[in-house]
């Protein structure tokens, strides 16, 4: 039996895309490869600057050895070398960042020499970095003019200063227009805090917990055990006028009953943590790195920087029960809340109930769009129970809708190659989208709970 195509998995309430439209879109998207030769041309230009650098360096060395180099000449020659290096830096940033942004992924995840800026590069970030690099190059040129002021006309000095200030103003304006301020406003909006349901036991997969030193924390609601306790993130990170409230009959929109008092910064974090629906507060710092026999600690440290959220990548924790998958997932979720992001946590069965309720009301597309306002969704315990074909189709639509748009963290006791045991024929298409831009973290070891029970016995 052939695995279903994405079209076969489409929900009845979601309009499908025509094959002609899809083919045309793929063809247009494939034209991005026309840019690849341009970047290889810039690589050749990089070689030219390497030659220019060593040519200037050799000339400087020769003149210094012969004793014909004055102090002004040495200073100007060194500034020329700095200028060449800065232009070369601009080139490499354009080559690597531009290719990664506009052509194809380079796939440096986990490489020890991966540039810091590449993990969160996008068109806006790239433009700002290029603008600042141009300002730096302009500064060096202006400094050269002032060092050699006796051979530079006042007219040249005036216009050099004016042009440099224009570069600075352009860089500041570009940085403002690229949206960091707007993103900060979005990430620090005051969330709506859902009422706390009855406490539930801590998650089974979490590692050992330790006291958390937080001043006057707000109570953290326990994991929602029914579809009734979910809440939908508001638009643009702020509370919306409505919330999605679900009952056994499905989903309905209801108005908020009251306005909340203004939050302090600490209370905003606690509000986001509470609204996320974590079963317990688990921090990355509390995780016992000595418990799993094998897992990539460097990768976990990089995930702790939340760089995957900036690029909409996913994280999949795979391991046997009790190895700490859920602990790490919650730890990343709490850290995302502390960084100003909205997060929703639920088990796979609870997500299935939520999506099924929305579909029963004919509002599945609306629900998926509403979830876009949450940069991070956590799906826990995938694989503990198999799903029927209809539920598998719902999960496919969740993964496909967030593909290259927003991040998912998934925990599972089975590797992705065995997900057909959980989702049947929907698994190949789902895994293809989930794993395309994903960090796979494998944890090997014995159950922490069994080890604790043995020690206690």
Can you give a write-up of this model?
It is a single chain. The chain is α/β, with parallel strands linked by helices and 457 residues long. The chain has 16 helices and 7 strands. A 5-stranded parallel β-sheet has the order 4-5-6-3-7. It has a two-stranded antiparallel sheet with strand order 1-2. Helix 13 links the parallel strand 5 (376-382) and strand 6. Helix 7 runs antiparallel to helix 10 and helix 11 packs across helix 12. The longest helix has 32 residues, at 71-102. The radius of gyration is 27 Å and the shape is elongated. The model is unreliable at 1-17, 184-232 and 234-263 (pLDDT under 50).
Overall 3D form:
elongated
Cα distance spanning the termini: 50 Å
Q: Would you report the number of β strands?
A: 7
How large a portion of the residues is in β-strands, by DSSP E? 5-15%
Give the class from helix and strand content and strand pairing: alpha/beta
Mean pLDDT: 75
Would you list the SSEs in sequence order as H and E? Answer: HHHHHHEEHHHEHEHHEHEHHEH
Tally of individual helices: 16
Name some characteristics of this structure.
alpha/beta; 457 residues
């Amino acid at each position: 039996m052939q695995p279903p195509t994405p079209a076969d998995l489409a929900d009845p309430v979601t309009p499908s895309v025509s094959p002609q439209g899809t083919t045309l879109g793929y063809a247009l998207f494939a034209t991005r490869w026309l840019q690849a030769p341009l970047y290889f041309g810039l690589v050749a230009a990089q070689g030219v600057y390497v030659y220019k650098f060593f040519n200037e360096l050799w000339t400087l060395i020769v003149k210094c050895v012969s004793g014909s180099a004055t102090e002004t000449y040495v200073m100007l020659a060194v500034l020329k070398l700095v200028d060449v290096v800065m232009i070369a830096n601009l080139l490499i940033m354009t080559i690597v960042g531009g290719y990664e942004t506009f052509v194809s992924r380079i796939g440096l995840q986990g490489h020890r020499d991966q540039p810091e800026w590449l993990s969160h590069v996008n068109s806006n970030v790239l433009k700002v970095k290029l603008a600042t690099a141009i300002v730096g190059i302009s500064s060096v040129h202006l400094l050269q003019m002032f060092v050699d002021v006796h051979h530079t006309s006042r007219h040249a000095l005036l216009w050099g200063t004016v042009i440099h200030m224009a570069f600075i103003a352009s860089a500041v304006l570009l940085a403002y227009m690229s949206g960091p301020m707007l993103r900060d406003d979005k990430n620090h909006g005051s969330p709506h805090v859902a009422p706390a349901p009855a406490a539930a036991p801590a998650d089974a997969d979490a590692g050992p917990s330790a006291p958390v030193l937080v001043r006057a924390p707000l109570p953290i609601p326990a994991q929602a055990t029914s579809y009734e306790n979910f809440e939908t993130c508001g638009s643009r990170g702020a509370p919306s006028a409505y919330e999605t409230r679900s009952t056994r009959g499905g989903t309905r929109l209801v108005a908020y009953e009251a306005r909340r008092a203004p939050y302090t910064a600490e209370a905003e974090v606690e509000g986001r943590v509470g609204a996320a629906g974590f079963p317990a507060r688990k921090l990355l710092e509390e995780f016992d790195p000595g418990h799993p026999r094998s897992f990539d600690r460097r990768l976990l440290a990089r995930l702790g920087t939340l760089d995957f959220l900036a690029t909409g990548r996913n994280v999949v924790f795979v391991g046997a029960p009790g190895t700490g998958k859920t602990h790490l997932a919650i730890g990343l979720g709490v850290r995302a809340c502390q960084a100003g992001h909205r997060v929703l946590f639920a088990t796979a069965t609870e997500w299935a109930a939520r999506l099924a309720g929305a579909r029963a009301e004919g509002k599945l597309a609306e629900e998926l769009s509403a979830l876009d306002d949450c940069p991070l969704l956590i799906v826990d315990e995938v694989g503990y129970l198999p799903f029927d074909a209809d539920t598998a189709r719902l999960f496919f639509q969740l993964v496909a809708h967030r593909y290259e748009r927003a991040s998912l963290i998934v925990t599972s006791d089975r590797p992705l190659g065995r997900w057909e045991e959980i989702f049947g024929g929907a698994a190949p298409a789902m895994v293809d989208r989930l794993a395309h831009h994903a960090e796979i973290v494998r944890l090997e070891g014995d159950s922490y709970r069994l080890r604790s029970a043995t020690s206690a016995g």
